Amino acid sequence: MMDSLLETKPTPKRLILSLMSAPSLETVEVGHLIRWGQLFGIEPAATRVAVGRLAKQGFITAVERGTYTIGPQGSLMAETASHWAQVEDRIGPWTGGWIVVHTSHLGRADKTALRARERAFRLYGFAELVAGLWCRPDNLAQLLDLTRTELIALGLESAAVVMQVRDIPGIEPETLYALWPREQIEAGYREYIKAMIRSEKHLQTIGNEEAARETFLVGEAVIRRINSDPLLPAQMIDTRARRQLIKGMVHYNQLGRAVWDKFQSTN
C-alpha cells in the first residue's frame, strides 16, 4: 500500500492548494511553490501555469508581485476538506431506515450532468440499488432537507426526488448491505492505518526533503479516503476501525505539519 502511495504524483493545483491551506502559511512566494512542485517532479512552467489559473479562479490571491495568499474560493475548499477529523460528528443513530433518491426521470444523455450526479452520490456514501434508484442508510445526524441541499451543491439536479423510507419492501436487508462491500472497506481501513505506521518509522531513516514528499503523499491519500467514507452505521461496518483510522491520521497530520514546517524553513 505505502509503496503505491509514494509512486503517485499530485497535480500542481492540488499540491498548491493543499500546502497553502496550512495555518502556518499566511503568504507564499512563487519560488517556494516551484520548489514544492519540483519535489514531486512537477516542472516550474507547470507550476506557474497552475498559479495563474488558481489566481484567476479566486483560489489564491496576489498580495504583491510574485507573492500569494489563499483566496476566498481556496479558503472554502480548504475548510470543507479540513472537516475530515470531525467526520463522525455527521453520524447519528440508525433505526433501519434509508435515504432514497430517484433519478430515472433525469435521463443519462447529458454525460456532464451524469458525472456530477454520480460524483455527488459517491461523496455522500450512496450506492445504486437499481438503475436510477440510489440509497444509503438514514443515519446522518442532519435533517433530510440539508442532505438534499448539499447533494445539489455537489452536483445532483434539483429535480431529483429525495426521500426517507422505513424499509424497501421486496428487498432483503442483506441485499442492501451488500451494496457496500464490508470486507473491502474494512481492509482499506487496516491498510491505510498500516501505511501511516510504516511511514512514521520510515521517516526516522530519511532526509527532510524525502520526508516532506512522503508525508504529503501518505497524508493526502488517507484524508481522501476518510472524506469519501460512506459513514455506515455500526450494524454494517466496523466503526472502531474507522475511528482508529481517523485518530491515526490526526497524529500523522501533526507529524507531517512538523516535517513541512522544517522543510519550508530550510528552503
Q: What this model shows, in words?
A:
This protein is of the alpha+beta class and 267 residues long. The protein has helices at 2-6, 12-20, 30-39, 44-56, 72-81, 111-123, 144-154, 173-177, 182-203, 208-227, 239-265; strands at 28-29, 60-64, 67-70, 98-102, 127-130, 133-137, 161-165. Helix 9 (182-203) runs antiparallel to helix 10. The mean pLDDT is 92.
Quick overview:
With 267 residues, this protein is of the alpha+beta class. It is 54% helix and 11% strand.
Task: Record the SSE blueprint.
Layout: H1 2-6, H2 12-20, E1 28-29, H3 30-39, H4 44-56, E2 60-64, E3 67-70, H5 72-81, E4 98-102, H6 111-123, E5 127-130, E6 133-137, H7 144-154, E7 161-165, H8 173-177, H9 182-203, H10 208-227, H11 239-265
Antiparallel strand pairs: 1-3, 2-3, 4-6, 4-7, 5-6
Q: How would a textbook summarize the main sheet?
A: 4 strands, antiparallel
- What are the segments in which pLDDT stays under 50 over at least 5 consecutive residues? none
Using DSSP, what is the number of strands? 7
* Widest sheet: strand ordering: 5-6-4-7
Describe this protein with a few key phrases.
267 residues; Alpha-Beta Plaits; globular; Arc Repressor Mutant, subunit A; three-stranded antiparallel β-sheet; four-stranded antiparallel β-sheet; single chain; alpha+beta; 3 domains
